[in-house]
Structure formats: structure tokens, C-alpha cells
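Predict structure. Input: Tc1-like transposase DDE domain-containing protein, 101 residues.
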Amino acid sequence: MLPQYENMRYFVQAESRFGLKTIEGRKITLAGVKPVGQWQWQFKAFWLYGAVESLTGESLFWQFSHVDTECYQQFLNEFAACYPKSLNVLQVDNGLFHKAK
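Output follows.
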């Protein structure tokens, strides 16, 4: 027997990376002289996964350390737990991590 849902909801989903990266512009020096300037050895970033219902504007966002199948599955579990009484349609892009292995 199929479960009964109160309604159907349509969400669009995307993910985006946010981070810190030093922007290093060009430096003019004499031939053979290496430029001196500040630079950064690390790149620190995090990913936001989000889903927005286009009809109402209701949204859900979760922060993750990286983007892969495991993090995406965790996002789907949290998403399903937030909207258990409705049949949720989630439109995604063609990211490789959206597919099961």
C-alpha cells in the first residue's frame, strides 16, 4: 500500500561553495626580480546545500564541508525529515554526486 500524502510540493535544489582565497594581482618588477607580496597557503571553504519551494518561497539550507554523494545523501535525509507529510519533488542539476554509485 502506498503512503498517503497531504499535498505535493515542488522544490528546486542547488549547492554552492563559499570560501576565503587571497586575490593576488600582477606586480611589476625588473626582469629577473621576483615580486614580493602577501599570499596564502590555504584555501578554506564550505558548501551550502539548499532547496527552495518556488510556490511559497519556503527554503531549507544546510552547511557541509565538501560536496559528494555522502554529504548529498545526508542533505536528502534532513530534507525528508523536515517535510514528512508531503510528497516532495526535488529538481536538481546534472552534478555527478546526485547519482547513486
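The domain at 1-17+44-101 is CATH 3.30.420.10 (Nucleotidyltransferase; domain 5).
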